[in-house]
Amino acid sequence: MITFIVSLVALVLGYLIYGAIVERVMRPDDRVTPAVRLADGVDYVALPTWKVFMIQFLNIAGTGPIFGAIMGMWFGPASYLWIVLGCIFAGAVHDFMSGMLSLRHDGANLPTLIGKYLGGGTRNVMLVFTVLLLMMVGAVFVYSPALILASMWGEPLLWIIVIFCYYVIATLLPIDKIIGRVYPIFAIALLVMAAGLLVGLFVKMPHLPELWNMGDMSQWTGNQMVDGTDTLGVVGYLQKNPIFPCLFITIACGAISGFHATQSPLMARCLKSERLARPVFYGAMITEGLVALIWATVSSYFFYYGGWKEVVSAEEVTNFMTQVQLADGKSLIQYFPAPQVVKLVCSGWLGIFGGTLAVLGVVAAPITSGDTAFRSARLIIAEWLHFEQKTMMRRLMISVPLFVASLLLLIWQMENPDGFNVLWQYFGWSNQALSVFTLWMITVYLARNRKPYIITLIPAIFMTVVCTTFLIASPQALGRPDFTEVTITVVALVALAWFILWYRKDRALRL
After folding, report:
1. Do 114 and 437 form a contact (C-beta atoms < 8 A)?
2. Which residue of 36, 175, 178, 183 lies most exposed, with the fewest beta carbons within 10 A?
3. Which residues have a Cβ under 8 Å from the Cβ of 67 and sit 6 or more positions away?
4. Is the pLDDT of residue 480 over 50?
């Protein structure tokens, strides 16, 4: 596990070294924060720093660094590179800068910040785009935990109603009443689960694919061929989903995620000091990257090392080997979806305690991302309409239509046989597209203030290329290197030319 160990060390050094460099760009000082200056007892509430960190971590984590990392490892050890480099140079910078800008603009939400630096037209587009994304988060993160809870007791519809009732309460009540009390507990559970798995990995020390195996995974794929059948299924998966750009969409929350920029303003309204921004925003993203690394390695152990045979019964092994050679048989990565991997590994490695933590991870984490998504949507719309949010009636006027629209989206998802997969694909792409707008907004801010904008310009161009390629190309087209290379070149040049022209125009106006 050399690559894994080096990656863990790299993330820690990234926080200590590059995090300090990025912090010096913004120069946090002792000015009064919105949590103190604009305190309203509802959304602007100064909270203890450890609580703010835990809430921020759970807000941005959800199941992203778990499910995304498990599926991302199907692309092989390239996932390590993306998690480490993406987290240090893109995701953590994205989260820290958006949080700092919100702090400097009275806790402003993302569309307001985008409007200030990218123009009113872009703000209006992003307002609609962001609210739709947040409603998708709410819908996506209701159905999967409801199904898991129903497998233990009750019906899915019952749990959907229960989860939505919780959403209503958590969205309307002051942030310190439920979120401030419950979130730290779930965040600690998520971290304890990751720490337990980390210990388990070092105890087992499995022989896993390393970075130098990229491009030649025959040692691991060949070992799982049975009578000419590829039981692993990774080769066929990569033919339909090439590493570029699919890897960078699959692993979002563990590297960079636009959803985070909608959550940072929530905690920007709770920070007591600007000097806490780096440990809270940059630190929470690095912590999420560590969790993603652990789960990516667990996934590598489960699929490539054959670890799945250690955590299932002999009967289950026989059942899989019997069906995989049928005409409609499922490969290993199809047979064991990400939530089941979580449950099997946690139960197998950590016993009853681990099984309980697994339930918390795959149930509580998405639910807690869903309620803050609705809260963010409420605040974004309220800021746009100039609606004060101290009054419960004003909060209801905005929240009720949001919940109705999300319920309609959920009903469509349940009635459509492939509804969840379709919704998840749109969610994944729109999530990364939002990071593109956020990165360009931050780049413009840095350029206007004569700060080193290169730190966000490069990630902005890269993510623009990723999202554009994923949007305009079909899987078949993506398989042609000439098409991908042309897309990368054209989009990168257009994005860079746009920024150069904007910068020259903006500089001329200022002069």
Report:
1. yes
2. 36
3. 338, 339, 342
4. no
Distance in angstroms (rounded) separating the CA atoms of residues 391 and 511: 45
Let me know: does 160 contact 146? Beta carbons within 8 Å.
yes
Reading the block at residue 285, the tokens are 């993203």
Q: What average pLDDT does the segment 309-328 reach? A: 87
Q: How far apart are CA 130 and CA 113, in angstroms?
A: 13
Question: Is 207 exposed, middle or buried (CB count within 10 Å of its CB: 0-12, 13-18, 19+)?
Answer: exposed
φ, ψ (nearest 5 deg) of residue 225: -85, 130
Answer for the pair 343, 362: CB distance below 8 angstroms, yes or no: yes
User: What's at 331, amino acid-wise?
Assistant: S
User: Counting Cβ atoms within 10 Å, is residue 290 exposed (0-12), middle (13-18) or buried (19+)?
Assistant: buried
pLDDT at 482: 47
What interhelical angle do 19-26 and 92-104 show, nearest 10? 20
Of 369, 314, 288, 233, nearest to 94 by C-alpha is 288
**Residues ≥6 apart with Cβ < 8 Å to 311:** 302, 344, 345, 347, 348, 349
Proportion of the chain above pLDDT 70, given as a percent? 92
What is the distance between the alpha carbons of residues 55 and 48, in angstroms, rounded to a whole number? 11
CATH architecture of the domain with residue range 2-235+264-316+331-423: Up-down Bundle (1.20)
243/230 Cα distance (integer angstroms): 19
- What pLDDT does 326 receive? 81
